[in-house]
Amino acid sequence: MSLSKEALLKKLSDGVVNMEEEEVVEACNEYIEAGYPAFDGIMEGLVDGMNRASQLYDEEEYFVTDVLLCSDAMYIGLEILSPHMPESELERVRPKGVIGVVEGDTHDIGKNLVKIMLETAGFEMYDLGRDVPLQSFIDKAIEVKASFVCLSTLMTTTMPGMATVVNLLKEAGIREQVKVVIGGGPISKKFADTIGADGYSPNAVEAVKLVKNLLNIA
Amino acid sequence: MHKDDQMTPNERLMAFMTGKPMDRMLAMPVACSMSGLALGMTHKEKKSTAYNEAMAQVACYERFGNDLTITEYGLHGVGAALGSKMSEPEDAVPAIMSYALEDLNDVDQLDMSKLELKNDNKFQIHLEATKILIEKLGHEVPTGVLISGPFTAAASIYKTENLLRATRKNPEKLHQLINFCNEGLKMIYREFIKAGAVILLCDPIASGTILHRKQYLEFVLSYTIDLMQDIHDAKGMVCYHICGDTTAIVGDMVTSGCDMLSIDNRVDLTHAKNVAGHKVPILGNVDPVEIMYLGTPDDVDKAVKSCIQKAYDSPSGYILASGCDLSGNIPLENIDQFMESARKYGKWPLDPKNFL
Q1: Which of A42, A63, A90 is the last residue of a domain?
Q2: Strand B85-86, strand B96-98: pairing
Q3: Confidence at residue B325, expressed as pLDDT on a 0 to 100 scale
Q4: Do A185 and B167 touch (CB under 8 A)?
């Protein structure tokens, strides 16, 4: 006998928390075959699991490796469930953010964690990757009408690039519409204030709270 | 010798190690990445020749009177020699653009001979810089070489994110990769030890910010113990540093057999003193960014004082240092102040009235 919707949602969520990709794939296929709505599977299954993982990360039960493996399991599940989303859900407008590691730096683990957490929290993220030319942040923000830009760097020598992005946003006349949040090893609240960024986050979980606060999202 | 000092750094270090009186506390701002500034050179210019690299250190020493000059084999050297591609910015620290190893299962194909001195031009430059520096200043001040530890060397060959995944999914091959790095590093360390340099073993990717303690114990510490043993067999001396928050592993780090332990500014010096201070001298930990790069001389003075307050009575001794490499456009006045505050608060014999 096949599992109930609730049992399958729990299996999806647990599969993500426990970093079990095969379990997630199996549960996703079973879920779709049973004809349950993909949207619920994503939100109450996969994303719920990732939220639990981020809670454990916040409590220092989970570390970077755990979060990466949980997100691997979540993304594998998303690949299966997303094609079954109805058009109306796909077109639902979500707040958009642009994220990347600033030019000259390629350390991207922190950036990737922040992206995962923001996506899980329901933001539509445009990931420009690492070593991103500074103007690209502005171009992308204009193109997708982003509400915020996230900048990351681990190196001291590339920190000034963050100030440049703030200034380029001003020059483009969109500084008021786009919040700028920054993070990374050498970054601090003081530095964020110095360059006129809107906020600093010491880690990925805080980054979600910070962006929600800045955009007045409960 | 610096005009405000009464002893050379060599004399001071000798006194420190034998428990004799000295003129002031040892002070080692890690003036490595930024050293070109002392000669008005960009980062790339400074690293382009052995002579430039050495002279930048000479200029720093002449200006600051710091107790350690530093050359660098660097954190990416192993990966670069094996084929990882680096950026070459004019005035910033290079970053890894692509990795020598795409698939961890190809670890058997890594070629150890590429790490040998005769086959690695960058290695030759940094070793030559070390020799020039020791020839010019060795009679007066010790020279250290900043060089990666095993986990960071592995991360210069294979992308860190996948390295982390491999700790769970492919531990056997990961052990093979780290072991390869360890054997390569032994060979590299020995060349620098032969030249007379102290090994400044830095393993930032093993940071507690990235790794869980269990991962550190399994994938880093056992290899590091082996490395430390080899350094000592070669009659070398080693200072061990891991960046970021190492609060959970400081007590483990000191079991590696290191001669000194350098503490990042994300760790409370008092904690480091309590868990490791009875075994080795502690170095640390003025914030290289918040204080040395973004702060004023007044901020530097306060930070130096605060470090000395916390660690001056560390049982095996305390050396004032920055929490990590000084990088970026650091105001040189801040390093002047760092040394001046060391002379003020660290004046011998240490008197807590001066800094408590």
Answers
A1: A90
A2: antiparallel
A3: 95
A4: no
